[in-house]
């Protein structure tokens, strides 16, 4: 008896045992079987045979979709979009903090008496503003994808 038979909707341990004894040892053997051949198994009528076959086909189709998604490189588009949105939100928050720091430095520079310190603080403020601008642009690019 193959455990994968238990994955088919409507197949329990007893039915899996009966199917295995009749030669249906895998999900694909059930999916490819004729309904009449399945109906020959003790305890399975024509209606149940058709539903077991359909369930096995759906199971196989689902596993193919999963393997294709994994092979194509990862999470679904919805998850990717959510990740990008979250990252963009962090970048916007970072940009906001950088702008705030730049404003504080500029304010401090204006009240500084030493010309040297004033220039240094203004340069630092300009660097912070540039970093904030980069973060905002990166955030926009992420959301545009």
* Terminal residue distance: 49 Å
Topology as a string of helices (H) and strands (E):
HHHHHH
In oligomeric terms, what are we looking at? single chain
- What portion of the residues fall into strands of 2 or more residues? under 5%
* Shape descriptor: rod-shaped
Provide mean pLDDT, rounded.
83
Give the % helix.
Answer: over 70%
Helical stretch count? Answer: 6
In terms of structural class, how would the helical and strand content be classed?
mainly alpha
Please count the beta strands (DSSP E, at least 2 residues each).
0
How big is the Rg? 32 Å
* Main sheet specs: none
> Unreliable segments (pLDDT under 50, ≥5 consecutive)?
65-74
Provide a brief overview of the structure.
The chain is an all-alpha fold and 145 residues long.
Describe this structure in words.
Helices cover 75% and strands 0% of the residues. It is an all-alpha fold and 145 residues long. Helix 5 runs antiparallel to helix 6. The protein is rod-shaped. The two termini are 49 Å apart.
Task: From the structure above, extract its key features.
145 residues; mainly alpha; 6 helices; rod-shaped
Topology overview:
Layout: H1 13-21, H2 27-31, H3 35-39, H4 46-71, H5 77-110, H6 115-144
